[in-house]
Write a structure and sequence with these properties.
The protein is 77% helix and 0% strand. With 133 residues, it is mainly alpha-helical.
């Protein structure tokens, strides 16, 4: 009969299926899903920007205010912001050792991501909904 070595994982982590960091594979999957979503969304973003090149301002606003274009831009902002936050969080968790500094850096990372995403979403919604007013 083979001898089994004792597990270094706690009973709770074995039940929840969590890895050593306590986050499990969730962040890994979120990073991969957002990366995959970013490919078509960034292609669409580049196409929208290329279509606006050389156009007068009112035509560019009309393009962004189209519901499909606005939706693609909103999805791109959300996906890129999540991808950015998770990626930076992994770097902070791996390389910042001091607990206080790590907490501050993780808070700043989340606050920055929320601020950038909120500003982008506000701009897109303001331009896209301005046509309705």
């Amino acid at each position: 009969m083979a001898k089994t070595s004792p597990s270094l994982r706690t009973a709770r982590s074995r039940v929840k299926g969590l890895g050593a960091s306590g986050h499990g594979a969730g962040h890994w999957w979120q990073q991969r899903v957002t990366a995959a979503a970013n490919v078509p969304l960034m292609i669409a973003f580049v196409v929208v920007i290329a279509m606006m090149a050389g156009r007068p301002y009112p035509e560019a606003v009309a393009l962004v205010s189209h519901p499909l274009v606005a939706l693609v831009l909103i999805l791109a902002v959300i996906s890129v912001a999540l991808h950015m936050r998770i990626g930076m969080q992994v770097v902070i968790e791996d390389y910042v050792q001091d607990k206080g500094l790590k907490f501050a850096a993780l808070f700043a990372n989340t606050a920055y991501t929320v601020a950038v995403a909120a500003a982008c979403l506000y701009a897109i919604l303001r331009v896209s909904l301005a046509r309705l007013v």
